[in-house]
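tool_call: predict_structure(chain=1)
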Amino acid sequence: MFMSTVEPLYMEHWLRILEQKFQLLNVTDEQKVRFATQQLLGSTSAWWDTFNVMQPVDHHVTWKLSEFLKLKQGNMTMMEYVNKFNHLAQYVGTHVDTDEKKMECFNHGLCCILQEKLHIGGYRTFGTLMNAAIAMEGVQRDSPLLWRYFSMTLRLSGSARG
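tool_result:
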Protein backbone atom coordinates (compact mmCIF):
# COMPACT_ATOMS: atom_id res chain seq x y z
CA MET A 1 0.00 0.00 0.00
CA PHE A 2 1.14 3.54 -0.69
CA MET A 3 0.20 6.80 1.03
CA SER A 4 1.40 10.27 0.09
CA THR A 5 4.88 11.06 1.35
CA VAL A 6 7.51 13.75 0.98
CA GLU A 7 10.21 11.10 1.30
CA PRO A 8 11.30 10.16 -2.25
CA LEU A 9 13.12 7.03 -1.05
CA TYR A 10 9.87 5.58 0.30
CA MET A 11 8.19 6.02 -3.08
CA GLU A 12 11.18 4.54 -4.92
CA HIS A 13 11.15 1.55 -2.54
CA TRP A 14 7.42 1.04 -3.15
CA LEU A 15 7.91 1.24 -6.93
CA ARG A 16 10.79 -1.25 -6.78
CA ILE A 17 8.64 -3.72 -4.86
CA LEU A 18 5.85 -3.31 -7.43
CA GLU A 19 8.28 -3.82 -10.33
CA GLN A 20 9.53 -7.04 -8.70
CA LYS A 21 5.97 -8.31 -8.39
CA PHE A 22 5.20 -7.32 -11.98
CA GLN A 23 8.23 -9.19 -13.26
CA LEU A 24 7.39 -12.27 -11.22
CA LEU A 25 3.80 -12.31 -12.50
CA ASN A 26 4.54 -11.22 -16.10
CA VAL A 27 2.20 -8.22 -15.81
CA THR A 28 1.49 -6.04 -18.89
CA ASP A 29 1.89 -2.24 -18.74
CA GLU A 30 -1.88 -1.69 -18.69
CA GLN A 31 -2.29 -4.21 -15.87
CA LYS A 32 0.56 -2.54 -13.94
CA VAL A 33 -1.38 0.71 -13.70
CA ARG A 34 -4.55 -1.01 -12.52
CA PHE A 35 -2.64 -3.05 -9.94
CA ALA A 36 -0.61 -0.09 -8.65
CA THR A 37 -3.60 2.22 -8.33
CA GLN A 38 -5.35 -0.34 -6.16
CA GLN A 39 -2.44 0.09 -3.73
CA LEU A 40 -2.97 3.85 -3.28
CA LEU A 41 -4.40 5.22 -0.04
CA GLY A 42 -5.54 8.58 1.31
CA SER A 43 -4.77 11.74 -0.67
CA THR A 44 -2.78 9.77 -3.23
CA SER A 45 -5.85 7.69 -4.04
CA ALA A 46 -7.99 10.84 -4.22
CA TRP A 47 -5.46 12.44 -6.59
CA TRP A 48 -5.60 9.38 -8.86
CA ASP A 49 -9.41 9.40 -8.92
CA THR A 50 -9.42 13.10 -9.85
CA PHE A 51 -6.77 12.56 -12.52
CA ASN A 52 -8.78 9.72 -14.08
CA VAL A 53 -12.03 11.70 -14.17
CA MET A 54 -10.27 14.47 -16.11
CA GLN A 55 -9.04 12.11 -18.86
CA PRO A 56 -10.86 11.47 -22.17
CA VAL A 57 -13.10 8.40 -22.17
CA ASP A 58 -10.81 6.34 -24.42
CA HIS A 59 -7.60 7.35 -22.60
CA HIS A 60 -5.47 4.54 -21.17
CA VAL A 61 -2.78 5.36 -18.65
CA THR A 62 0.43 3.43 -19.08
CA TRP A 63 2.87 2.57 -16.33
CA LYS A 64 5.39 5.08 -17.71
CA LEU A 65 2.78 7.86 -17.67
CA SER A 66 2.00 7.14 -14.04
CA GLU A 67 5.72 7.23 -13.22
CA PHE A 68 6.14 10.46 -15.21
CA LEU A 69 3.28 12.24 -13.44
CA LYS A 70 4.76 11.36 -10.04
CA LEU A 71 8.31 12.39 -10.96
CA LYS A 72 9.97 14.75 -8.46
CA GLN A 73 13.58 15.87 -8.37
CA GLY A 74 13.91 14.98 -4.69
CA ASN A 75 17.51 13.99 -3.96
CA MET A 76 18.47 13.69 -7.65
CA THR A 77 20.98 16.09 -9.15
CA MET A 78 19.54 18.32 -11.84
CA MET A 79 21.21 16.24 -14.57
CA GLU A 80 19.75 13.04 -13.11
CA TYR A 81 16.30 14.69 -12.99
CA VAL A 82 16.65 16.05 -16.56
CA ASN A 83 17.69 12.62 -17.86
CA LYS A 84 14.85 10.81 -16.07
CA PHE A 85 12.34 13.47 -17.16
CA ASN A 86 13.41 13.25 -20.81
CA HIS A 87 13.43 9.45 -20.73
CA LEU A 88 9.89 9.24 -19.36
CA ALA A 89 8.63 12.13 -21.53
CA GLN A 90 9.03 10.00 -24.65
CA TYR A 91 6.23 7.70 -23.39
CA VAL A 92 3.61 10.28 -22.36
CA GLY A 93 2.42 11.73 -25.67
CA THR A 94 0.07 14.67 -25.36
CA HIS A 95 1.24 15.53 -21.85
CA VAL A 96 4.42 17.02 -23.35
CA ASP A 97 3.55 17.69 -26.98
CA THR A 98 4.24 21.44 -26.67
CA ASP A 99 7.07 23.37 -25.04
CA GLU A 100 4.55 24.96 -22.67
CA LYS A 101 3.27 21.57 -21.43
CA LYS A 102 6.79 20.19 -21.18
CA MET A 103 7.93 23.22 -19.17
CA GLU A 104 4.94 22.94 -16.84
CA CYS A 105 5.58 19.24 -16.15
CA PHE A 106 9.33 19.81 -15.70
CA ASN A 107 8.75 22.71 -13.32
CA HIS A 108 6.19 20.71 -11.32
CA GLY A 109 8.83 18.16 -10.35
CA LEU A 110 11.39 20.71 -9.11
CA CYS A 111 11.85 21.88 -5.53
CA CYS A 112 9.89 25.04 -4.63
CA ILE A 113 12.96 27.31 -4.58
CA LEU A 114 13.95 26.39 -8.13
CA GLN A 115 10.33 26.63 -9.30
CA GLU A 116 10.19 30.20 -8.04
CA LYS A 117 13.53 31.23 -9.51
CA LEU A 118 12.77 29.69 -12.88
CA HIS A 119 9.30 31.23 -12.98
CA ILE A 120 10.80 34.68 -12.43
CA GLY A 121 13.17 34.07 -15.35
CA GLY A 122 10.28 33.96 -17.84
CA TYR A 123 11.78 31.24 -20.06
CA ARG A 124 9.93 30.64 -23.32
CA THR A 125 11.27 27.23 -24.39
CA PHE A 126 11.85 23.97 -22.60
CA GLY A 127 15.51 23.97 -23.66
CA THR A 128 16.24 27.36 -22.10
CA LEU A 129 14.34 26.42 -18.92
CA MET A 130 16.25 23.16 -18.60
CA ASN A 131 19.62 24.84 -19.23
CA ALA A 132 18.81 27.54 -16.66
CA ALA A 133 17.89 24.89 -14.07
CA ILE A 134 21.18 23.07 -14.65
CA ALA A 135 23.13 26.34 -14.44
CA MET A 136 21.33 27.41 -11.26
CA GLU A 137 22.12 24.14 -9.55
CA GLY A 138 25.79 24.54 -10.52
CA VAL A 139 25.94 28.11 -9.19
CA GLN A 140 24.17 27.09 -5.98
CA ARG A 141 26.59 24.21 -5.43
CA ASP A 142 29.82 25.96 -6.45
CA SER A 143 29.32 29.44 -5.06
CA PRO A 144 26.70 30.16 -2.40
CA LEU A 145 27.59 33.88 -2.45
CA LEU A 146 27.13 34.07 -6.24
CA TRP A 147 23.86 32.12 -5.85
CA ARG A 148 22.52 34.82 -3.51
CA TYR A 149 23.53 37.53 -6.02
CA PHE A 150 21.96 35.57 -8.88
CA SER A 151 18.76 35.16 -6.85
CA MET A 152 18.57 38.87 -6.10
CA THR A 153 19.16 39.75 -9.77
CA LEU A 154 16.30 37.45 -10.82
CA ARG A 155 13.97 38.96 -8.23
CA LEU A 156 14.79 42.47 -9.36
CA SER A 157 14.39 41.67 -13.06
CA GLY A 158 11.13 39.83 -12.33
CA SER A 159 9.68 42.79 -10.43
CA ALA A 160 10.79 45.23 -13.13
CA ARG A 161 8.80 43.24 -15.77
CA GLY A 162 5.70 42.85 -13.64
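agent: The chain is about 70% helix and 0% strand. Proceeding to next step.
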